């Protein structure tokens, strides 16, 4: 029988294992300069990965603005928020809450930025709906990957500094970044196609994206590794 992440995490706790974030917390509390510097490096890896995933997700969600009215957009974002909320592997919601904060930022901004639908919008919606849903779910998988990598308690707390540095580097540089770069390139192509057919709103859209980009960076750079519920 397949176990859920929460069930598997409970078994790991029974073996007195901890998560990557808990191990990082010990580094942060250390009085040794080397360990505190290591903490900052790993925190930066987590933040960079979170910003990259968030940017990909936001880009795809923004495409729906071209074809959704206010109620539809709110419903879509609530669905994404619910999906992300279900991904936590334990009660430690550090990573998940940060992604949810990002979605809430988009909800606040789009509540004032949506426009009435036209017949052209309806055609766009039909053409893009399947592709959007597929890409969003691929990005949601990367959210889960980051959550599991940093919050799943599968590490013995005596693991060496070198091993954890290698793990963090492998995850963010060699695993996630490659997948997200591909998704980002696909997003750029889809966005360019949409902008060509929606030229009048190009300037407004770019301004909107710039504000969101700054907001995403602020949310992740304020990341607090102390557990939140």
What can you tell me about this protein's structure?
Helix content is 76%, strand content 0%. It is mainly α. It starts with a helix and ends in an 8-residue tail after the last helix. The mean pLDDT is 77.
SSE blueprint and pairings:
Blueprint: H1 5-14, H2 20-29, H3 33-63, H4 70-85, H5 94-110, H6 119-151, H7 161-196, H8 202-221
Helix pairs in contact: 2-3, 3-6, 3-7, 3-8, 4-5, 5-6, 5-8, 6-7
Order of helices and strands: HHHHHHHH
- What is the end-to-end distance? 29 Å
Which stretches of 5+ consecutive residues score pLDDT under 50? none
Q: Percent range for helical residues?
A: over 70%
The counted number of beta strands is 0
Number of folding domains?
A: 1
Outline the biggest β-sheet. none
Tell me the radius of gyration: 19 Å
Beta-strand proportion:
under 5%
**What structural class do the secondary elements suggest?**
mainly alpha
Query: Globular, elongated, flat, extended or rod-shaped: what is the shape?
Result: globular
Count of individual helical segments: 8
Provide mean pLDDT, rounded. Answer: 77
Keywords for this entry:
single chain; 229 residues; mainly alpha; 8 helices
